[in-house]
């Protein structure tokens, strides 16, 4: 990032992918999916400060299994009827080479903001566009997603993956 990147940025949904993964059946079966609708923005200050927000439409999740998707959208997990969005807010980020050490909060399923810290890789950045990738490890229980059909069946550990393309408004 350089002086030419200072200013406001908006997320390019066509150049952005957001995914999730976790484990079910006592860790033997991976559950993966994507979110199809996402928006966001970011600001790079003249002094190099960085902040931003990613807003994900929770109902747009797709794990390639309609029955599972219906369950993930239910009150057992994302509760999309009552809480339609997942929000990641980056309150600060510091650049070290091509890595951004990010900190902020995340909300999902009506949770209070949960502190998050993760590293985003700067894939490319110029005066017109910036592409970042990140993996956000999380515990479902911190967002109130504690449903279990049988104890231990669904692992608490999950992660989000993001490739975000930001452009000038």
Structure description:
The protein has a single domain, classed as Lipid/polyisoprenoid-binding, YceI-like (Lipocalin). The chain has one helix and eleven strands. The protein has one helix at residues 66-73; strands at residues 7-11, 17-24, 29-35, 38-44, 50-57, 61-62, 85-96, 99-107, 114-125, 129-139, 157-167. The chain has an eight-stranded antiparallel β-barrel. β2 (17-24) and β3 form a beta hairpin. It is elongated and about 55 Å long. The chain starts with 6 loop residues before the first strand and ends with a strand. The model has no long low-confidence stretch (mean pLDDT 91).
Number of domains: 1
N-to-C SSE string, H for helix and E for strand:
EEEEEEHEEEEE
Number of strands: 11
What characteristic shape results from the CA principal axes? elongated
Please bin the fraction of helical residues: under 10%
Instruction: Please state the structural category.
Output: mainly beta
- What CATH architecture do you see? Beta Barrel
Side by side, the strands of the main sheet go 1-4-5-7-8-9-10-11
**Low-confidence blocks of residues:** none
User: And the CATH topology?
Assistant: Lipocalin
* Percent of residues in beta strands: over 45%
User: Roughly how many Å apart are the termini?
Assistant: 18 Å
| Gyration radius from CA atoms, angstroms | 17 Å
**pLDDT averaged over residues:** 91
Largest sheet: 8 strands, antiparallel, barrel
Q: Return the CATH class.
A: Mainly Beta
CATH superfamily: Lipid/polyisoprenoid-binding, YceI-like
Chain oligomer state: single chain
Secondary structure tally, helices: 1
């Amino acid at each position: 990032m350089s002086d030419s990147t200072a200013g406001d940025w908006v997320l390019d949904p066509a150049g952005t992918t957001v995914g999730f993964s976790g484990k079910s059946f006592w860790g033997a079966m991976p559950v993966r999916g994507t979110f199809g609708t996402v928006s966001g923005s970011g600001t790079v200050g003249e002094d190099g400060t960085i902040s931003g927000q990613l807003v994900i439409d929770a109902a747009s999740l797709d794990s390639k299994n309609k029955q599972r998707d219906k369950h993930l959208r239910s009150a057992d997990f994302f509760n999309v009827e009552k809480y339609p969005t997942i929000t990641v807010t980056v309150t600060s980020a510091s650049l070290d080479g091509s890595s951004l050490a990010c900190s902020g909060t995340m909300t999902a399923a009506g949770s209070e903001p949960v502190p998050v810290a993760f590293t985003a890789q700067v894939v490319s950045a110029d005066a017109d566009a910036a592409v970042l990738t990140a993996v956000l490890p999380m515990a479902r229980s911190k967002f109130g997603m504690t449903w279990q059909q049988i104890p231990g069946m669904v692992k608490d550990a999950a992660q989000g993956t993001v490739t975000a393309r930001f452009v000038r408004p």
